[in-house]
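Lab notebook, bench 4. We co-purified these components, and the gel suggests they stay together. Before we commit to crystallization screens, I want a quick structural picture of the whole thing.
Request: model the full complex, all chains together.
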Amino acid sequence: MIMSRTIGRRVKLVICYTLVAILSFTFFIPFFWMVRSALMDHAQLFRYPVQIFPNPIVWENIPYALRSQPFAIFFRNTIFLVVMNVIGVVITASMAGYSFSRLQWRGKKIVFYCLLSTMMIPGFITLIPTFLIWSALGFHNTYVPLILPAWMGGGAFSIFLSRQFFMTIPKELDEAALIDGASHWKIFWVILMPLLKPVLAVLAIFTFMGTWNDLLTPLIYLRDRNLFTLSLALASFRGPFGGRWDFLMAASAIVTLPMILVFFIFQRYFIEGVTLTGIKG
Amino acid sequence: MGAKVSRSRKHFRRNEIYGWLFAGPAIFGFLAFTIGPMITSIFLSMTDSTLGFGGNFIGLEHYRRAFTADPLIWISIRVTFTFVAISVPLTISTAFFVALLLNTEGLKGVKYFRTIAYVPSIVPGVASAFLWRWIFNPRGLLNHLLETIGIPGQNWLFDQNLVLPSLAFMGIWGIGGNMVIFLAGLQGVPRSLYDAIEVDGGSIFSKFRYATLPMMTPTIFFTVIMGIIGTLQVFMPALLITEGGPNNASLFYGFHLYRTAFVNNNMGYAAALSWIMFIVVLAFTAIIFATSKHWVYYEGGDDR
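Here is the predicted assembly.
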């Protein structure tokens, strides 16, 4: 009886490991295909029967793709936007979180729930008038529409996340400081900021990812090629690299790689952040 | 005593001011980037403006046009609903299944697999769109794989009947976020429930049916709501992969809206389209919320 149970358990584990292996392979294969195609020439890509590994490896695709388009400029633009947005969201979202969790003021609850409910509003409702307003103000083809929202709390989700985190920090800490005569400003910056590190990391990473991967906002606001971000530039390669899957895959890999590096460095915060969205939602 | 009262009132006033001050940027952003544009959008949808403000007031003409004189809108609504019906159950059940698998007792290396499954969802949308266009290419990876097991290749993205299932299939690659949410939820199912069922001689299936599934309904509810709201607005695959084709078979409502606004520069009409989308999203959310009390189990709720 006991023996059959351990055997049953073992069989179950073997089945699970097999499934996990198959799934891992399935999730991984597209990455492999991207890199493999990036390192082949056009003839190798369409050889029949299919050639799985590049032979010879066409390393030149990478420098070719990099040189044929001003990648350095796109990269610099993207980094600039990422840095600006990360700083903006981290500061203003955590300030809002402090206010909504710690300070007492009339209308706080209503304002907070109004803010939260904006998560349900389809982006297009606000996108079209916002676009027209920015254009009327003369900010079309500038970074202002891409940066300013991040300095306004960075959206309901960021504010919600930081408020939830503030709720977990014991109130006694800042109450003691308040009695000692410290200002709210000081409590926020000096006492609470260091404790906020985990949620700030989550906010920073989500903002990084959002800015790096965003296509729509740059697409509608930016006309001048010198202002393009990597995602927007990549989308525009379909013309010049049309049908050249080797170059398109090389360019895609180049744009993807930094995101993956950031993921592996800050993996813990990614998973934490996603978990928070689910549990608190 | 008088001094004490005035001090606490002063303190209260100070708190009040600081409250608004700290939330200031967020509140300003809310007014400037949500409320303001929403009000503008209502008016915009009632003008014949194309690119910019200052069109003539035409009342509800755009809404009338949307329902009576725009053949594309009905196609796009059908496409979008079909896609929601295929994609949401497919991606959520796959994410749930993978999370269940990883939650198996005694399974090692979960962390590594979680990483492998999560990484695709951080790949820039444009890069993953190009990658999948290439995978779905008639001479691409998918057809190669199928041909090796004797199944004839298909023209995935250029076949009216296959394009939506193909795009939904592509969505499976991005289930990482939901999978992590499900995993976190599964870790919250109390062990004692499983033990109780085990003592009663229950099988692995009764564990799933009577412990896991009911305890996971709040998480399922959350992912389904977010999945439906997100998928109703989807337009990127059309923008980057299919351009709405073939023969409008992937003309998502969001893509129709995007094209109306930013390609055809018909802003007034596009604003009206966005309000119709808003109503639809609201209706779906309301319906799911209304059904939730019949199938979502909340701990600490009423006993059953």
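Chain A touches chain B through 90 residues (CB under 8 Å). Worth comparing against the SEC data before the next meeting. Chain A is about 75% helix and 0% strand.
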